[in-house]
Amino acid sequence: MSNTFQLSLAPHKLWQAINPWSFYQQGAQFGFINIDLGQTNHPDVEQKILDEVGSYGRQLGRIGDALEVLLKHVQFKDAPSPEEMDALAILQGQLAEVRKVKERALPQAAKHSKTDA
Predict the structure, then answer these.
(1) What global pTM score does this model have?
(2) Average pLDDT over residues 61-82
(3) Which residue, of 37, 55, 61, 79, is most buried by count of CB atoms within 10 Å of its CB?
(4) Residue 111 within any structural domain of the chain
């Protein structure tokens, strides 16, 4: 009965099979930047909108800005339910968080957007 001591600094299997088709299924990316636009019936139109109008982030940001204006000035015909008020409060909180991130990341842009509003 031999009692040999073995020290291994690396695994015994030093190779790995690489199948690029399995990367996609696992959520890996092939390039430095991968954007999945999802399924659309008109990808050419969607790409033109992104090129000529603005990125999804820019479009959502402007929608958020417009919603903030509407929420400041809206007068409800009927009182919103507690669930509706919660939904509005959550949205306002998210918009405030986005504003904070923009102010930290883009201090100059934040100053200009305040004067534009």
Answers:
(1) 0.55
(2) 92
(3) 61
(4) yes
